[in-house]
Design a protein that fits this description.
- It is a single chain.
- By secondary structure, the protein is of the alpha+beta class.
- About 30% of the residues lie in helices and about 25% in strands.
- It contains 5 helices and 12 strands.
- A hairpin with a 3-residue loop joins strand 1 and strand 2.
- Helix 3 runs antiparallel to helix 4.
- The model has no long low-confidence stretch (mean pLDDT about 90).
Length: about 280
């Protein structure tokens, strides 16, 4: 399994991925889930992948040379000459379908599902930044101001902090910190996600970045974040009042009068009684 997150903000983009693959408790390996496509001054794109490793590696390889033709006579589009991230994502979707057409039947006969999920984002000169999530069928959706991030892989443990912190106006460094907390929460609860981590931060309209880092378990910033996040969570938890059952002793009783249709659960005390 894996965990990857891509975040689109007004100030730029943040991408984070782990590198653990798990084919059983005795077959754990390290494979990078992120690839960067950059032509300084012209375009910057990042691809994150989750799912079947052989499929995602094939898609990544084919994407660099995949061509999309609108008509037989038109100039072929590639990720290196297209003029919009939408077209770049269409080319990625075609690369996914290319691999499907080639491998899906053989995989099915071997009892393997065609499973790949991708996050693809960046900026091409002439338009703003864009972020997409691409599915196994090659179709995709785009991030919006209401949902400024996409997650793939083992995402459920890292989602709450993203929902509470991120808005389009969030600063890049704060978003990078939020992504690392999200990853740390995931690794705490799921052993199939693990370091080293790949982190990329892109500033809007630069068309290149030097903020590319590999974060290992002993990285000093990550160690500080890991210990501080756990400690602060415990402190916040301890600061919350315990539930009080007697409303005479508190302003916030747990046993409060229910409103609407909700009533306390009914007890069954005799064989002939019914729940309803």
């Amino acid at each position: 399994m894996t965990y990857c997150v891509g975040i689109k903000l007004n100030a730029g983009l943040v991408f984070l991925s782990d590198s653990r693959t798990n084919a059983g408790v005795d077959n754990i390996s390290t494979f990078r889930k992120m690839i960067i496509y950059e032509r300084p001054g012209d375009r910057f794109m990042v691809l994150l992948s989750a799912g079947n490793l052989s499929i995602s590696q094939s898609v990544r390889e084919i994407l660099q040379v995949e061509q999309l033709r609108e008509t037989p006579e038109s100039e072929p589009l590639t990720i290196w000459n297209c003029t919009s991230m939408f077209d770049a994502c269409r080319i990625l979707g075609q690369a996914v379908r290319h691999v499907y057409d080639r491998d899906a039947d053989s995989l099915k006969r071997a009892g393997v599902e065609f499973n790949v999920n991708l996050v693809f984002g960046g900026q091409i000169r002439g338009e703003g930044m864009r972020l997409f999530q691409v599915y196994s069928a090659g179709n995709f959706i785009e991030a919006t101001s209401e949902t400024p991030y996409f997650q793939i892989g083992e995402y459920k443990y890292g989602k709450p902090v993203l929902d509470r912190v991120l808005t389009p106006d969030t600063e890049l460094d704060e978003a990078a910190k939020c992504a690392l907390v999200s990853m740390d929460s995931t690794m705490k609860s799921n052993l199939s996600v693990g370091p080293p981590l790949d982190l990329v931060v892109y500033e809007a309209n630069r068309f290149e970045t030097d903020k590319v880092v590999c974060v290992e378990a002993q990285n000093p910033y990550y160690r500080m974040l890991h210990s501080s996040w756990g400690q602060k969570l415990r402190e916040v938890f301890d600061s919350l009042d315990d539930p009080v059952w007697d409303d005479a002793h508190t302003d916030t009783p747990l046993r409060a009068e229910a409103t609407g249709r909700s009533k306390p659960l009914k007890k069954i005390s005799r064989p002939e009684e019914k729940l309803i």
